[in-house]
Structures are given as C-alpha cells and as structure tokens.
C-alpha cells in the first residue's frame, strides 16, 4: 500500500496505471475509518484493479459552528484498516496541499440542496462539490463509491458527475449498521455514553415509519409524527429535521408514492447524527 500526500505524485502514479489500462476504484472519506468505509473499500476491491482511498477532513464543508476541530482523526489506525482491506493507495493531503491559495472559482450546488442537510448546513454541499471536483481530477477514477447513509450527498454527487461530464460511474452502497441498528459513523465516538444508548432510536423510529407505510399510511405528516414522537420519547437529542421526499429528486409529496426517502438528523451534545431509509412503494 502506498501513501501519497502530494497531488502531483499521486497523479503521476495514477496516469501510469491508466497507461497500463488498470481500472481505478475510488473511496473518498474523511478518515477515522469504520466498517461502513471498509464495506465501500471491499466493493471497490471487487470491481477494480487499483483501489484508492482518500482521507481528508475538508474544512470547506463545515460551517463555522460545526465540528471541524473535534472531528475524530487517527491516521495510524486508518492505515491499518485500509491495509486490511487491500487498498492500494491512500491519498492523505494536508489542507494546504488541497487549498494552497484563495480560490478563483467557486462551486455552488443549486439543485436538491434546499432540503435536509442542505437546508440545515448552509454551504455544506458547495464544500462537498468543490472538494470532489478536485479529488476526481486528482484520482481520475473509473468508479467512485459513496454510502447511502449520506443519501443527499449521493444525489449531489450524481449532479456533479453529470454536470461536469466526469467519466466516472457513481456506485451507491447501502448503509452499514451497528448490531443495535445505529448507522456506523466516525462521529459516533463523540456521543456521550447515555447518548450512545439512546442513538439507535433514530433507526428504530425510521423502521416504525416504514412499518406504517407498508401498512398503508400515505400521509407524510402522519409518518413524520410517528418518527418524531418516538425519537423525542427515547432520546434527549434535539431533532434537526425529519423529512420525507421523493428519491432521488428530493421533491415534497402530498401523498406517498413511488420511491421515497425518510431522512432524520438529530443533535446530541457534541455530535449531530443522520440516518435515512429509502422505500420503494408500489405505484397505484
Ligand atoms: P465520511 O468519512 O463520513 O465522509 O464518509 C465517507 C464515505 O463513507 C461516504 O460516502 C459515506 O456515505 C460512507 N459511509 C459513512 N458511513 C457509512 C455507513 N455506515 N455505511 C456505508 N457507508 C458509509
């Protein structure tokens, strides 16, 4: 496994791989790797000659009062995880390497960002799109792997790839969970012990919503109420949002039909957690 901190050096190596017609699978991450990330790496390993993982906590996608400073980091451990999952290259740039000077171009995501995390984290997806455009140009992957835990991010990445004509196949990967249902996340370590006990209620609430929908409930407000009362009952967290939209368009619906997403964000003391379920309804 090779570790690169320098953009040019990685690009030189990648171009050589391309000359040798090797396919490149790419997993962008912010590190503190867990089994969710590992699952993306395993998928990439199965489908590509070379697997590249980037580890970069991107300051551009954090708001002023968000957790950029306290975001967990452990590069030593990350190297072991990547090694164990047969990653070929780790790209681990510094902030200066990625953003050496004031930008001359800014990217603004204009579709599908007026809802969910786009609404509650202004500028977040502009930061995500900016870093991904750079990373895609650096890594030049054939396939890029993204987790459905961040379903809105998947929708935004789809827009980036299409709008900017990247010859990259986006591969969405299902959410990996702890045994108690909590979606694996680097941020889970920042939960206080009692919050860690309460946090699985997010997924349980989502499952209650699914059950109600499967049993015929089609009113989005009623579904939101079910999830809201459950999470409020079971946790001391503050609900940031519980929203239901068509997926992947992220449009509001009066009556649930087609493919839908129920997405939740809950704030605890030091961490904000997100989760979602995507449900395919039978059309009438
Ligand atoms: P992050 O390091 O949190 O930016 O995540 C890097 C990639 O891993 C993103 O595509 C995430 O959606 C994905 N990811 C994070 N958590 C999970 C999970 N529990 N299951 C599957 N993918 C995940």
Fold and architecture overview:
There is one protein chain. By secondary structure, the protein is α/β, with parallel strands linked by helices. It contains 10 helices and 9 strands. The radius of gyration is 19 Å and the shape is globular. It has helices at residues 7-19, 35-47, 75-84, 95-98, 116-120, 124-139, 151-163, 193-198, 201-214, 220-234, and strands at 2-4, 24-29, 50-55, 89-91, 143-147, 169-173, 238-246, 259-267, 272-280. It has 2 domains: 2-173, Rossmann fold (3-Layer(aba) Sandwich), CATH 3.40.50.620; 186-277, 2-Layer Sandwich (Pantoate--beta-alanine Ligase, Chain: A,domain 2), CATH 3.30.1300.10. The strands form 2 sheets. A 6-stranded parallel sheet has the order 1-4-3-2-5-6, with helices on both faces. A 3-stranded antiparallel sheet has the order 7-8-9. The longest helix is centred in the middle third of the chain and has 16 residues, at 124-139. It is 38% helix and 19% strand. Bound molecules: adenosine monophosphate.
List keywords for this structure.
284 residues, Rossmann fold, Pantoate--beta-alanine Ligase, Chain: A,domain 2, six-stranded parallel β-sheet, binds adenosine monophosphate
Summarize the structure.
This protein is an alpha/beta fold and 284 residues long. The chain contains 10 helices and 9 strands.
The CATH class of the largest domain is identified as Alpha Beta
- Total count of helical runs of at least 4 residues: 10
Biggest β-sheet strands, sense, barrel? 6 strands, parallel
The CATH architecture of the largest domain would be 3-Layer(aba) Sandwich
- Uncertain runs are none
């Amino acid at each position: 496994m090779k570790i690169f901190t320098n953009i040019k050096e990685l690009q030189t190596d990648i171009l050589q791989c391309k000359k040798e017609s090797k396919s490149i699978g790419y997993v962008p991450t912010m590190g503190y790797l867990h089994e969710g990330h590992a699952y993306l790496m395993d998928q990439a390993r199965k489908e590509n000659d070379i697997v590249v993982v980037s580890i970069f906590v991107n300051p551009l996608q954090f708001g002023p009062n968000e957790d950029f400073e306290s975001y967990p980091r452990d590069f030593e451990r990350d190297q072991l995880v990547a090694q164990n999952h047969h990653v070929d290259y780790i790209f681990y740039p510094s902030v200066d390497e990625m953003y050496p000077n004031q930008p001359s171009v800014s990217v603004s995501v204009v579709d599908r960002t007026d809802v969910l995390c786009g609404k509650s984290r202004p500028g977040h997806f502009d930061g995500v799109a900016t870093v991904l455009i750079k990373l895609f140009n650096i890594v030049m992957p054939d396939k890029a792997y993204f987790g459905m835990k961040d379903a809105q991010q998947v929708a935004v990445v789809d827009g980036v790839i299409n709008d900017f004509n990247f010859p990259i196949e986006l591969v969405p990967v299902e959410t990996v969970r702890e045994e108690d249902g909590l979606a694996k996340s680097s941020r889970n370590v920042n939960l206080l012990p009692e919050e860690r006990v309460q946090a699985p209620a997010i997924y349980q609430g989502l499952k209650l919503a699914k059950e109600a929908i499967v049993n015929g409930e089609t009113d989005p407000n009623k579904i939101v109420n079910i999830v809201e009362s459950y999470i409020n009952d079971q946790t001391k967290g503050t609900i940031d949002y519980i929203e239901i939209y068509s997926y992947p368009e992220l449009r509001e619906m009066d009556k649930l039909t087609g493919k839908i997403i129920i997405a939740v964000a809950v704030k605890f003391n030091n961490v904000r957690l997100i989760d979602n379920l995507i449900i395919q309804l039978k059309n009438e």
